[in-house]
Amino acid sequence: MPLRFTIEERFDASPEDVFRLATDIDSFGDWMPNFVRVEKLTGDVAGKGTMWRETRKMFGKESTELFEVTAAEPGKSLDLFVDGKKGTTGRGEYRFRYVFEPQGAGTLLRMDGEIAGMGWFMETLGRLFIGSFKKAVHGDLKAMKTH
User: Fold this and answer.
1) Which of 21, 104, 132, 139 has a CA between 20 and 30 Å from the CA of residue 33?
2) Cα–Cα distance between 99 and 111 in angstroms, integer?
C-alpha cells in the first residue's frame, strides 16, 4: 500500500513566479538544502518529458535520483516521477504533484506525494519514518520560499 502525504507552504509571489522557480533547474543549487549537482538530460524547458539527475547529500552520503516531468501546466501544476530503480535508492516509485493556487497576493503551494513499490517490509517501516521524510521535503519548500 503506497505511502501518501501532503505538504503546504505559502509564498509571497504569484503562482507563475513560484512555478518558474520550482522548474528553474539551474537555480536548484542556489536554494536547495544539501544540493551537490544536477545533470540536465533533456534541455532547459521544464515541460512534460523533461528529465534530470539530482544529487544531494543524505545522511552523509551522496544520493542521486532520476526525475521526470510527467505533466506541467505553468503557474498551475507540476507532476514529477522518480523511478527509484534508476537511482541510489534502488527501489520504489515516487510521485509528486505540485499545485500552485492563488491566495490573496501570493500563492499556496500544495505538494501531494506518494511512495510505492518499496516492498511490504520497507513500506511498513516507511510508515514509521514518513514524518521525517515530510519534514525534509517541507524544508525544501521553505528553502525555495526564501530564494
Assistant:
1) 104
2) 6
Per-domain residue ranges for the chain? 3-34+73-146
Provide the pairing of β-strand 93-103 with 106-116.
antiparallel
What is the helix, strand, coil percentage profile of the chain, to 5? 30, 45, 25
Residues 6+ apart with CB under 8 A from 45: none
User: Greatest CA span in the chain, whole angstroms?
Assistant: 45
Q: Which CATH architecture has domain 3-34+73-146?
A: 2-Layer Sandwich (3.30)
pLDDT of residue 136: 84
What number of CA atoms fall less than 13 Å from residue 24's CA on the CB side? 15
Read off the C-alpha cell for 8.
Answer: 503546504
Q: Could you write out the DSSP letters of every residue in 31-90?
A: H-TTEEEEEESS-S--STT-EEEEEEEETTEEEEEEEEEEEEETTTEEEEEEEGGGSTT-
Q: Decide which of 90 and 106 is more confident.
A: 106
